[in-house]
Amino acid sequence: MRATDEIGLTTSSTNQGRLTINAQVAGDAFPDGRLNFTGTDASEVLHLDLASTATDDKGVAAVRVALEDHDTGRYVQPNGTMAAAFATLNATLASPNATSTTWTLGVDLPTKGEFAVTAFAFDTVGQQDTSTSGATARYLVYPGDLDPTLSETLFSPTEGTAFTEARIFVSGRAEDDTAMGEVEVAVVNSAGQYMSSSGNFTSTSQSWRSAFLNSPGTPGSNFSYTTPVIPSGAYTVRARAIDAYGQVQAVPRDVHVTVTAPAGNVAPVASFTTSCSQNVCGFDGRASTDENAPTLTYSWNFGNGRTGSGPVPTTTYTTANTFTVTLTVRDEYGLTGTTTGTVTIAEPAGNVAPTPVINQPACTALVCNISGVGVGRPQHRRHLQLPVELR
To answer: What does residue 294 show for φ and ψ, rounded to 5 degrees?
Structure first.
């Protein structure tokens, strides 16, 4: 949806309202078109051979494939040119109108680029495949473009390096025949778990961190990366270069290192004070001590089912009781200190139960608004309004 004013100005494409509605023919499922390859691949020629299968409960009438060059935002057109208008190419079906068929499509690309490929199936009543699951792929088509590399002689750390400050420092130089895009670093522990951005190790799925490049977009760039504080142990440091076209170094560089915390580091000591106004309590943990106190992180358990963070949190208690509050402080090297304290919450003198009020309903036809304006004591009035449909 777009609007045009009295002098002819029209809503820009970025601000237009769009709504997609998939209207299914009753009793007829949507078709499902797939691609045999759904990852990222590189091609050294301006040609793609695409193939897969398509299924539908009534019959597959067509498979159409969109090829968008992400470098320019243009689509391959049926006449073999490139244009900004969305377009698809018709694939060849092995068994037209069958409930299951294979399909093929050979495409001569008019230009190099990063092509996003999406397959759409259509059934015999014109319904379009509404899901792109298993039907998308990415092809880096840059004939003659070499893979980026990392300099063997300038890469650091070297095999067997021991880091004694609980962090790993990675640096070096990345090179490409056209332009460098980025360098990624992964750190893997002895259990095969990858380091997250916060320095935790919980998943064996590949996880990469971006290094700093001093000259991105040029054929050669120095890079550097420092991990967060990580636990003592043995690690594999893995690094790979990626050029400006998205081509990834075929074989990442791996080195093995060890990490330990600084000698003499001791656990922090947790301490806090409490200040309450009726049932609202504030806590101050800044009295906690450590060799480097500004790096401490604070984790609170207020004893009422709620938790908090930061040095000076607050919480509200909703029942009268004595609660045990626990503060845990963690230093930059992962050592922790814990302390507890108690908070006693008493019901204020003179507190009485609220008085419910139901005002005269306001009805229109079978719909009535029932208002609870005035619920509670005069100093704590509450407003409750609830629409009710009478049947």
So the answer is: -60, -20
Dihedral sign, Cα of residue 147, residue 152, residue 155, residue 161:
positive
Q: Which CATH number fits the domain 13-141, given the four candidates 3.20.20.70, 3.40.50.2300, 2.30.110.70, 2.60.40.10?
A: 2.60.40.10
The pair of structure tokens assigned to 153 is 């002689």
Nearest to 214 by CA among 239, 182, 189, 188: 182
For the chain, the domains span 13-141, 149-259, 273-345, 352-391
Question: Which residue type occupies 15?
Answer: N
For the chain, give the mean pLDDT.
Answer: 91
C-alpha dist (Å) from residue 375 to 153, 229, 390: 77, 54, 24
pLDDT at 48 over 90: yes
Instruction: Spell out the CATH class of 273-345.
Output: mainly beta
Summarised one tens digit per residue, pLDDT across range 294-348 is 989 999 999 999 999 999 999 999 999 999 999 999 998 888 999 999 999 998 8
Q: Is the dihedral of CA 284, 286, 289, 292 positive or negative?
A: positive
Q: What is the 3-state secondary structure (H, E, C) of 147-173?
A: CCEECCCCCECCCCCEECCCCCEEEEE
pLDDT in tens, 9-31: 888 877 878 887 777 788 889 99
Listed in sequence order, the DSSP H helices in 212-273 are: none
Question: Edge to edge, what strands does the sheet with 273-277 contain?
Answer: 273-277, 280-284, 314-316
Residues 335-367: tens digit of each pLDDT? 899 999 999 999 887 788 888 888 888 888 888
What architecture does CATH give domain 149-259? Sandwich (2.60)
